[in-house]
Amino acid sequence: MSSALPVLALAATAILLTVGMPRLLPRLHWLRRTPGAALALWQVAGAAGVLAALMTAPAAAIALNSEGGTVPTFFTESTRVSLAVVVATVMTGGMSVMLLRSAHLIGRGLRTDRRAQRNLVDVVASRSDGRVRVVDHPGRSAYCLPGLRSRVVLTQGTVEALTEEQLRAVLAHERAHTTARHDLMLEFFTVLHWTVPRRLRSDDALAEVRLLIELLADRRAARRVGVTPLGVALAVMAGSTHPPAALGSSGAPSELIVRLRALPGHERTHPSAVPVLLTTAVIAAAPWASLTWAFWA
Fold it and tell me: Which part of the chain is the Peptidase M48 domain (predicted)?
């Protein structure tokens, strides 16, 4: 039985990190005070959950081939099926197939849509300045189309509604997205979200990740331009929309309130960042610790 415990530990870790954590973390609103550390925690938890699932097969193989290794079995003596093999097959095989499928569909869809949107914006833009495009539309909207050929898109309505300083704040926010490649971070979480079975996935988790990414870009913009211009620009842009493939704010009032409240603390590192990063390190080590346990058990 002892040789199977690391396999079961890996399976439990995978379930906890891919199903349990996405339901728990959105409830911890204090993590919004330190969005960088919070996103690191989210990323590592997701990656460690996938890694734990993929490690169950090697761990089961080690358990079955270890000297004197025994594992609990199902059925009768003539049709023995080890619990370790069942867990490894379900966790590793299922996760591998669903992960590859989600990554292919989401990655291909996002890149196709963004490429088409970039080409459209380049054609219809009334003005351009480097990678910034201004579209002649009366509504207020500002978003970025990330990628190797990134674009920051503003509508004419946005340009007219904001002062020069506020416009610089909006541009700094969008450029923070493209420079730091926040799109890859969001794509990673989106792939993990769609990898989890429909009944087990949490839509709140993906919405919280989007909010944390906006908070992170807000911090970078506030440090560059200042809190007041960015805060006013956020208020003016409330309710704005953007294409689905673009990276931008949802414009929801609840999101605006959270972002405005977070602005005053942008210059200091919150004390909670240290325990969050320590927790992240522990989670990152968990799958490897279980695999090492299987090897030495």
Answer: 131-185
- Two tokens at 297? 């058990």
Number of domains in the chain: 1
Q: Which distant-in-sequence residues (6+ apart) come within 8 Å of 183 by Cβ?
A: 110, 146, 147, 177, 247
* Cβ(192)–Cβ(205) below 8 Å: no
Q: What is the pTM of this model?
A: 0.85
Cα 40 from Cα 296, distance rounded (Å)? 30
- The parts of the chain modelled with pLDDT lower than 70 are 1-4, 61-91, 250, 266-269, 297
Coarse DSSP helix, strand, coil percentages of the chain, rounded to the nearest 5 percent: 70, 10, 20
State how far the Cα of 258 lies from the Cα of 29, in Å rounded to an integer.
10
Q: What is the pLDDT at residue 129?
A: 86
**Strand runs (DSSP E) across the chain, as ranges?**
73-74, 81-82, 125-129, 132-135, 142-145, 151-155
Q: Which of the 8 DSSP states describes residue 18?
A: I
For Cα atoms 105, 15, 190, give the angle at the middle one, nearest 5 degrees: 25
Residues 6+ apart with CB under 8 A from 218: 173, 230, 234, 259, 262, 263, 266
Read off the DSSP letter of residue 56. H
* Domain coverage including residue 230: 2-296
